[in-house]
Amino acid sequence: MRCVLKKILCMTLLVTASSSFGESIYTDFFSDKALSGYDAVGYFSEGKPVKGLKEHKVEHLGASWFFNSAKNKGLFESDPDKYRPQYGGHCAWAVAANNAKAKGDPKYWKIVDDKLYLNYSEDVQKKWMKDIPGFIKTGNVHWPVLAGK
Questions:
Q1: Per residue in 68-105, pLDDT tens?
Q2: Is residue 61 within 8 Å of 77, Cβ to Cβ?
Q3: pLDDT tens-digit readout, 114-149
Q4: Most exposed residue of 57, 64, 76, 135, measured as fewest CB within 10 angstroms of its CB?
């Protein structure tokens, strides 16, 4: 039993919170935190990942979103689609190149045309950056089907 639990704890698993709209949001394995607790608005307002705080929490699309300030929380609540990451926070390159969901890491991100995209790792982000417009175009085709899975 102990070995099985250890393997489960060590595995990288994708966990998604599904909304009634069929959209899936990547969340941490042991919680329902979107963006691993980072502030979605912070990428736009501060140009970097900023950790959110428990006192500025919002439930949206079956996930918990945390914000660094009441102002950021209010901005998100007034227009969540503007701030939440594309492809439900899954890796933009994986969605486009592999037609698959993979963990999006909030530390590897880019805003393109006022939309937030995450990647799995620095190496994957380098691949994605070689053809961002092409990957976004392909990802936008793949995502509607993947979102329902």
A1: 999 999 999 999 999 999 999 999 999 999 999 999 99
A2: no
A3: 999 999 999 999 999 999 999 999 999 999 999 886
A4: 57
Give the Cα separation of 70 and 111 in Å (integer).
Answer: 22
Q: Which residue has the tokens 């941490």?
A: 28
Element (H, E) at 6: helix 2-10
Tally the residues of the chain: 149
Rounded Cα gap, residues 21 and 58, in angstroms: 18
Spatial CB neighbours of 61, under 8 Å, sequence gap ≥ 6: 17, 19, 21, 23, 25, 34, 80, 84
Whole-model pTM? Answer: 0.84
DSSP of 104-139: PEEEEEEEETTEEEEESSHHHHHHHHTTHHHHHHHH
**Closest alpha carbon to 68 in 44, 89, 88, 40:** 40
Considering only residues 8 and 44, tell me which one the structure prediction assigns the higher pLDDT: 44
- At 98 the three-state DSSP class reads helix
DSSP class of residue 87? Answer: G
